[in-house]
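Subject: Circularly permuted ATP-grasp type 2 domain-containing protein structure
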Amino acid sequence: MALEAYQTGGFYDELFKGDGVAHDAASPLVKQIDALSKAELKRKQKWAEDILYQSGNTFNVYGDKKGTEKILPFDIIPRMVAASDWDRLERGIKQRIYALNLFIQDIYNDQKILKDGIVPRELIFSSSCYLKPCEGLKPPKGVWTHISGTDFVRAGDGEFYVLEDNLRCPSGISYVLENRAVLKRILPHIFQSMKVRPVSDYGDHLYRTLKFIAPEGVEDPNIIVLTPGIYNSAYFEHAYLAQQMGVPLAQGSDLIVKDDYVWMRTTRGLKKVDVIYRRIDDEFMDPETFRPESVLGVPGLMRCYRMGHVSLANAPGTGIADDKAIYAYVPKIIKYYLDEDPIANNVPTYICEDDKERDYVLANLDKLVVKAVNLSGGYGMLIGPKSTKAEQKEFAALIKAKPREYIAQPTLNLSRAPTLVGNAIEGRHVDFRPYSLYGEEIFTLPGGLTRVALKKGSLVVNSSQGGGSKDTWVLGDDTTVVEGGANAE
């Protein structure tokens, strides 16, 4: 019995409400996993890993002596989200994306929220994510944040909290889709007995989102995915999404600006490009507007965009809402633009730019998590309770030197989920990133990327720091389309 000896360890657990007692919604899954021997579970785990490797679903780890190309470690035991939890998460995500879209539009145009003193002006203009060339932009249909990933953690109280917003080029959706496809092959009988909502239609939703923002008068747009190239860590995902939508994958060298339109070189000559799903960071998109040394982008692209001759997703400039210092103001941003209280709560956040909050952070470094505002992947972070005095001293100096670059948050008891580790099943900390698309309306895929901190006791789930992933099962009710049976994908 695979789960017989599993212990929650005093943490909130995604499958169990106590040792040996499953959450009601997870009970059917636990029973079927428990019916497998550990040997059977390990064989299925190995099978899943082989499928993922053969599919080419890999990422690059720069500077790793063991090799650069790896599969994201995958755990065969899925994570579940109850229908009631998902309903609240989905409403909170949509509210948040809608408000942040209004915020970005305002910041690069009228700046009313700054004039009214809701967000400090210096916080915006000191951000490396604020792009002056984006001032005055008005994206097609008023949408800036077409593709987003909202990171959640579940704390010891069982509640989900937003950890950060990803509004530039959020990655990871290919793992969501591939993990589901693999698990349907490995554990088909379990899907047939549970109301798991499907995720495989993401490519269709993404295509419709991109088509919606096509330039005025273009009925049948030529849509492409723009990648930095094969050496990018997420190149597999770029190619995967292009294939899912049935559109070309291009690099900057494949494109040219002519007569203020963007054209793609093909074997039959130039073909006009109408919509670009760009997986290139803002500052590398157009050397005429941003970094002149960039060889990844397309000279003149921003000029075409401003003229309405090509549409970009996401719109350039969205990174201002990614800034972790701005994150602290999202509840006020929601209240300002929507006159609503946040449905999804933030983690309490201290901004080191503020004198009083900085003093508190410096006095409590052993208790807090400190983050650099513009770094990701688990870099530039201090986890206070697990840090040494030397590390705390180092971060204190960094904060004092550049307070704008750091925020701090209390250390949360992140939820855990049963994870196959060697010959045992043990609890490992997890987070959750659902993906949303903003076109004619906001659609949130009923699933997402559950990342797992595979190192025992670790709170860092990022793949670059040794994290892995799980398939995420959002449960439906009697009215929802589900995996398996007559409603199979």
